[in-house]
Amino acid sequence: MIFSVEELEAPGFRARDIKAVLAATGNEQLRVNLGELTLQGRTWRKLGLICRKAELDRDVLRCRQGVLELPEKIPVRFDYAIGTKTLEVEIAPEPGERWRLRVRLGETPWSLLLTADNGQATRLAAFMPENYPRPSAGRVRGSVSASGSGEGLRNLMVELVVAGLAFSDAAGLRAGENVDGRVSLRAERDKAAWGWQGEAVWIAGDVFWQPFFGRGAAHRVAARGTLDSRRLAVATGVAAIPDVGEVRLSGTLARPANDLEDFELHAQDVNLGGLQRQVLKPLLDQTAYSELSLKGRMTLDWHYRGGRNEALQLTLKDADVEDGRGRFALRGLRGDIPWSATRESRGEIRFASGALFGIGLGEIRVPLRMNGSRVTVSRVRLPVLDGRFTVEGFDAEMRDGKWRWQLNGGIGGVSMEKLTAALGITTMHGKVTGVIPRVSYEASTLAVDGALLFQVFDGSVVAKNLVIVEPFGRAPRLSADVEMRSLDLELLTRAFSFGNIQGRIDVDVAGLVLSKWIPVRFDARVMSTPGDYPRKISQTAVQNISALGGAGAAAAIQRSFLRFFDQFSYSKIGLSCVLRNGVCRMGGADDIPRTTALAEPSGAGAGERGRLGESDSTAYVSPAATHGYVIVKGGGIPAITVMGYNRSVSWDELLSRLQRITRDNLTFEMR
Amino acid sequence: MRRLLLRFLLLSAALPLAPAVSYGQADLEINTPAINSLRAGLKQRHPQLAPYYASGAVGLTREGLVAVRDANLIPLPSRGAVNGLVAAENQDRNALYREIARANGRPDWEADIRSTFAQRWVALAPGGVWYQSSGGAWVRK
């Protein structure tokens, strides 16, 4: 007996070139061939079913010892009642694995029940829609039942438990391994819309869902809502994450593009430590904030309407934010930030203490005024060590996705001793007091309008034309002009263990450019401040200044009568450096004309690299008697003049000499 | 001057992939602290990325950057970390191109510098590394 059907079609189903042959005897009592089968958009070709034992008992067709050719050969048995159009199929692809399917087409509504017992999850891959992650390993147990009418599916119920599930999309950006969990879903269609509710519990296993990575620990998501051709709506949803807390969510997605339309999210009393460990740490791995640690509690209400943020209410309780690399820390953080896109609101952030690069910060209160994408802070007084930092008129605005802001303020009463100790650098003395004029940040560039003014070393420092490009980027670039006036050399040299110099200096650094905070270009000049004040320089300082030009001068001093003096008089100090391409072009207070021959001491040291000249109670310390420049010009009794002869010095070499001098604080034994 | 710079780049680009490189002309600012620091960062990160270049998980793009080409080749728990590595590498590479152009007072050269670097990364890469052709297709060297 032969049956042939050219095409069978139902919603989501199509079969073509169906041919069934039923024989009374032989090894293939029933053979069914399908030329093509399409289910939910997926197509298989050349499928076959062979029954070695088939019987037609009244109106029931029974198949025993059947084989499905998919083309993988899978054992199958089924009964088909022709009158009621009821099909019962049992498939056992391998020992211990069993799938049962019962389809009743002869009654209204039609129904379908699929049960799996230790089923291989990979067998479901063929039924997954395109672009969805597909299973590649794991076992599944449970059932899927569905019913419908001629108009299509009406009810759907899923109860599945998975173990050791592995899945992935083609790009590997949505993937899981060794996942244990369970899923339940009930959905019912009313005309064109579905009502649904479901729950998923992720018990164990790893999941990477770009950019998140997580390890299951009884994470649970439950939700209910509706679905139609235009949108997917979640009426209520809750996600429970152990060690973090619960997040309640509702919202809608526009179909078929899956664009987010609206949502409301409420996270009550979230544990920030758990959030950092489970959500943020994998995200921040390999970034500058990979060692960030969070503690405390947070409550968040977030409303999103019509494709844009509408309102946000963030409350922080006793939170600590700490950078493991020691760059910043905020402790005892409390905040109340109510933000709205359409109306003005006021909030506040407080923290009990903090630190920035080791500099201790005291209690602070930041009052915020927010209006749409604009945030303003009228005045903040931040205790810094034993002084304070004041910010006034902070005004920030987000435009085209980028922040721009401006502020002004000042710093006062911070002792240099405490500041340098906190920064772990050479101890300096005095107070830092300064005025910060308008500072603005826009297009990745921070600029200071006017002059930054600080009082240090009993003098003043003024920075003008200060611009920092990409201050928070990988390669910040700073440019500025700096003028320092009347710095007390005694305080300065004491701070840097340079030997003692009494007097005052002015410093001009024009066209300063720092690349990644290291100088690459400037025109610098150091000169004695005009005026009447004591000018003395110690023997150690002379030797250190000389050592900047290379070794040798120290020995020369030792050989002369100057070794009997601890300090000398001078009339002026001058040194200049024009830095270009890593080379410092040096100059001094005066150039020495080539025609001026310096008096040389008779005998000792002539022709050596470090020589000492004496003339009218003035001694000349020079690395070589060639054309040079005066760094310290002698004056008074006993006087000393220090010469420089190296016109070009590598900047790195100059720095290392300075570091050696200030670190070792070379001293000389007087004999 | 422009050709000189590009010739220098041809000599000294892909540092992390080629430990022994030649250095170029002294009158070009290619040794600023920022450039040196960025190059050192790239070199330091290279051993972490090298296995992923070799496996084909990460490839070299035609824009002189790197990209995850096939995440399936990365163990699942490492995928986020490799994403972070790739993002950090690209931040440094972008900053390097920008800084070289800026240090020489020619920000308008950035595109040429990027393009020259992109070619040199590929030329210096060992066989087996995946790169994007000028048409955007992934090709195995």
Q: Tell me what portion of residues of chain A adopts beta-strand conformation.
A: over 45%
Question: How many angstroms does the end-to-end distance of chain A come to?
Answer: 127 Å
Count of domains of chain B = 1
Give me the secondary-structure category of chain B: mainly alpha
> Which runs of chain B of at least 5 residues are low in confidence (pLDDT < 50)?
13-27
| Number of H/I helices of chain A | 6
Instruction: Please state the average pLDDT score of chain A.
Output: 84
Classify the beta-strand content of chain B into a percent band. 5-15%
Shape, per Cα inertia axes of chain B:
globular
The major beta sheet of chain A can be summarized as:
45 strands, mixed
How far apart, in Å, are the first and last alpha carbons of chain B?
32 Å
Give the C-alpha Rg of chain B: 15 Å
Widest beta sheet: strand line-up of chain B: 1-2
Helix content of chain B: 40-55%
* Number of contiguous helices of chain B: 4
How many DSSP-defined strands of chain A? 45
- Largest sheet, strands/sense/barrel of chain B: 2 strands, antiparallel
Low-confidence stretches of chain A: 595-626, 665-671
Mean pLDDT of chain B: 81
Q: What spatial form of chain A do the alpha-carbon principal axes imply? A: elongated
What does this structure look like?
The complex is a heterodimer of chains A (671) and B (141). By secondary structure, chain A is mainly beta. Among the domains of chain A are: 1-83, no CATH class; 95-228, no CATH class; 457-664, no CATH class. Chain A has 6 helices and 45 strands. Chain A has a 45-stranded mixed beta sheet that branches. In chain A, strand 1 and strand 2 form a beta hairpin. The longest helix of chain A is centred in the C-terminal third of the chain and has 14 residues, at 651-664. Chain B is mainly alpha-helical and 141 residues long. Chain B has one domain. In chain B, helix 2 (33-55) runs antiparallel to helix 3 and helix 3 (79-103) packs across helix 4. Residues 13-27 of chain B have low confidence and may be disordered. The A-B interface holds A 168, 171-173, 175-177, 206-208, 210-213, 282-287, 290, 469-470, 473-477, 515-518, 520, 581-582 and B 26-27, 29, 31-35, 37-38, 41, 70-74, 76-77, 79-81, 83-85, 87-88, 91-92, 94-96, 98-99, 102-103.
